[in-house]
TrEMBL record:
Keywords: Membrane, Transmembrane, Transmembrane helix. The chain crosses the membrane at residues 37-58, 135-157, 163-187. Residues 43-150 form the Nucleoside transporter/FeoB GTPase Gate domain. This is Spore maturation protein A.
Amino acid sequence: MLNGIWLGMILIGFGFAAVNGRMNEFTAAVFDGAKSGVTVSFGLISVLVFWLGIMRIAEDADLLKKISKVLGPIVSFLFPDVPKGHPAIGYILSNMSANLLGLGNAATPMGIKAMQELQTLNPDKETATPAMCTLLALNTASITLIPATLIAIRLNYGSADPAAIVGTTLAATAVATLAAIAADRLFRRLTLLRRPPGPPPVLNAGTGPANGSGALPHSSVKG
């Protein structure tokens, strides 16, 4: 789907450039964009390597375990339908920890693994479970304490104060996370309300379930 969208945008740009006689500008923009992509990638690699190293040190120092203990009750509240001790819980905690540090690229693999583990609990493999929807919402609108990736981009483009966005990013992601949790709770309730109730038991003329002929079950008849 995304490949088709990008291909369509390229073809549309090429068509407009050809019609307007601006192929030179189109070609220059293509190569300038490729050059900028490589330059930004190198800047991001250095920052990501640094923060991944910090996370490895934090892991060896048991800091991530302490963060997981703090986030554990929150995860249990947000994912009540995931059994305690299930492998998905560990991947969800790792995903949330990486997102807190603004390491979206590091959080993505953990989110994918969490989705795969949640899929093992899914009775209908063609439909996402409430837990999977919750994870997607939290991963998209996660609270970010240190927007490392954005700081790296601002630093790469010569910003005078790359870390100036920390406060506003924290406020924006906090509001987004609260909105995502509220929407998730609402849709969970709506799903429960829309779920058809099970068939009521068929009662006999006063005493108990019938066996289809109006009589009591054989096991309950004495003598």
